[in-house]
Design brief:
Rossmann fold; 4-stranded parallel β-sheet; globular
């Protein structure tokens, strides 16, 4: 079973969607997920809350979390999304870099497309882990 850490800049968009979609898709498989940001925002972006509610996932009460070395040590797999050199490197971990647009301030259709791309990548990752 794998621990997967999703990291972006603000932990208010891409990483929050990734954690939620992974957790739902991994139900019953024993894999766990966390998300974090290098410079966390005060709240999850409103447009992200809207498109995730369309899937029955409510992120409105989530509080963005600052990335720590403990998070990186906990993880077997670290998925980065736009944080570049600000993400810590822990030897022995598997690192993936998902090139995804930041959903902040985008139209809902664009945020839906990002959400759906994350969903497809999460399913592929779960396939590799199982």
């Amino acid at each position: 079973m794998a621990n997967v850490l999703f990291v972006c800049l603000q932990n208010a968009g891409r990483s929050q969607m990734s954690e939620a979609l992974f957790t739902r898709a991994a139900a019953g498989r024993g894999h766990t997920a966390r998300s974090a940001g290098t410079t966390p925002a005060a709240q999850v972006h409103p447009e992200v809350v809207v498109v995730m509610r369309e899937l029955g996932i409510d992120l409105a009460d989530r509080i963005p979390h600052r990335l720590s070395d403990d998070d990186a040590r906990w993880a077997d797999v670290v998925v980065t999304m736009g944080c570049g050199d600000a993400c810590p490197y822990i030897p022995g971990r598997r690192y993936l870099d998902w090139q995804l647009s930041d959903p902040h301030g985008q139209e809902l259709d664009a945020v839906r497309a990002i959400r759906d791309e994350i969903g497809a990548r999460v399913k592929a990752l779960l396939g590799e882990l199982s």
